[in-house]
Amino acid sequence: MVKSEMAESEVEVIHSWSAPRSLSTSLMYSFAQRDDIEVLDEPLYANFLRVTGLDRPYREELLSKMESDGNKVTTDIIFGPGRKKYRFCKHISKQRLQGLTGDLMKKGKHFILIRNPLDILPSFDKVVPPSFYELGLAELVCIYNELRETGKAPPVIDAAELQQDPEATLRGLCDDLEIPFQPAMLKWEAGPKEIDGLWAPWWYKTVHKSTGFEKPRKYPEPFPFSLYNLLEQSLPLYKMLRRHVKKKSSLLSSPLPTPDLPVPANEKLLAWVGDEIVPRDSAKVSVFDSVVQGGDSVWEGLRVYNGKIFKLEEHLDRLFDSAKALAFENVPNRDEIKEAIFRTLIRNGMFDNSHIRLSLTRGKKVSSGMSPAFNLYGCTLIVLAEWKPPVYDNTRGIALVTATTRRNSPNNLDSKIHHNNLLNNILAKIEGNNAKADDAIMLDQDGYLSETNATNIFVVKKGRVLTPHADYCLPGITRATVMDLVVKEQLILEERRISLSEVHTADEVWTTGTMGELSPVVKVDGRIIGNGEVGAITRRLQAAYKKLTEGSGIPIPNYVKT
């Protein structure tokens, strides 16, 4: 053999971290096919057994044949010289114990391999009984966070992606590791293999039959429900890591790219769900909740100005009225809801320019179905606070179109109940979106003006301010506030039926709502309103409304103006 082929030199180490039963051995076989890599199968295993004292069928043999001093393994074996450019080290996360040299994590390139506990747990107990500790998912999360804090967040790949599209997944991983992909990684000869650890006869029987990454069964085996509690404990950790997977396969469709948020600061926020505050991605309700089963919920929109919640008492009055109209039971009391709102805002540091979506569902059901008799857990309270400026252009104005979808009649579903079943409004909004308008006007059953899909509406003609009766439309709290301001500004207010032609020929039009405040309308169905600019009365009332929001509202406890 040529001397240069025998010479050993410093190698670049690639660390693979995973839980057991995660296709880590298949991935080790894949890397072993490369012509520039040598592999080590769980080099820290003996140290793990020595330190923990855990029993395994092969414990004594392993301790007698493998180096069990973890720091020696790290220095002399993992980072020792080699004959190839790279060394691939397959690690099981729980084998990273306290006391190991810091070089283990500081040196080399690291990546994390994850697998859904639904797929791991059914086959886990072939050698040892499954447990939270044996799974090692908590340690896997710790490894990810420790590496991320050094400024080098490790790539994360999911075993499901390896099975569905091994070449694309391996190419992506190689790119992340800054090594060239080699097609040889896709196939290998059946085992056993010389690179196997001596524990292979107990753990590797299935993988020894493989010659590549195989697609999973179309239909998995039934889950052993004796492990249900362990699944509940481990699944959130898997999901936490899966958020960092670049490419995710889906049973239903190809995943969409991550969208940009209207307000990027809302990517990280805290929401109240049920009886606790949770991060955005954990803010979920049960599939048995009535809001999922039938849109059976009531809600309010609230705005925060200068450390105060505007019209909080009025919104709570309407929330309780809506809940009573729908015969909700076990409703939280007023003080409890206020405390949830205050705590959510304080935790988020939201004291101005914020909007709250306050929802109260009928609650979780004991079984899926329509009947409220199934709702035996009490109501579910949701406080969703976001950084959100007014959602319309209140300086230059907005454009509306008239929808063919008519507003619900009180004969069908009374709009005075502020409920979450918004399909009537959503159908109108779809028409508005298709027409590239900001919103859509909805008429009542007789063809008279009702409201838009999201707001109340006002019309000015010859100095008179007109707004529809609250027969079909929601009697909005911002609507009532603006009506009071109209009177205080000594303008003439008329609440009456308004035909669509009166809107088209109006001098001014505006909409009102908590989310958008007072929004001027400059075009309706292609007709220019007035001279196409924000009208004088509109500006006058906008100023009055702004002054009112600056000086009134329920103070948020502990708010200190900066």
What is the gist of this entry?
This protein is α/β, with parallel strands linked by helices and 562 residues long.
Chart the SSEs and their pairings:
Elements: H1 3-6, E1 12-18, H2 24-32, E2 37-41, H3 45-52, H4 59-65, H5 70-78, E3 86-92, H6 103-106, E4 109-114, H7 117-120, H8 132-135, H9 137-149, E5 156-158, H10 159-164, H11 166-177, H12 200-203, H13 205-208, H14 228-242, E6 270-273, E7 276-279, H15 290-294, E8 297-305, E9 308-310, H16 312-325, H17 334-348, E10 354-361, E11 380-387, E12 398-402, H18 423-434, E13 439-443, E14 449-452, E15 456-461, E16 464-467, H19 477-488, E17 492-495, H20 500-504, E18 508-513, E19 517-524, E20 527-528, H21 536-551, E21 554-555
Parallel strand pairs: 1-3, 1-4, 2-3, 4-5, 12-13, 12-19, 16-17
Antiparallel strand pairs: 6-7, 6-11, 8-9, 8-10, 9-21, 10-11, 13-14, 15-16, 15-18, 18-19, 19-20
Helix pairs in contact: 9-14
The best one-word shape is elongated
User: pLDDT under 50 segments (min length 5)?
Assistant: 1-5
Content-based structural category: alpha/beta
The CATH H-level superfamily of the largest domain is P-loop containing nucleotide triphosphate hydrolases
CATH topology of the largest domain: Rossmann fold
What is the count of helical runs? Answer: 21
Give the fraction of residues assigned to helices: 25-40%
The first-to-last residue Cα distance is 76 Å
Q: Domains counted in the coordinates: how many?
A: 3
Determine the mean pLDDT: 94
Radius of gyration: 32 Å
Give the percentage of residues in beta strands: 15-25%
CATH architecture of the largest domain: 3-Layer(aba) Sandwich
Instruction: Tell me about the largest β-sheet.
Output: 9 strands, mixed
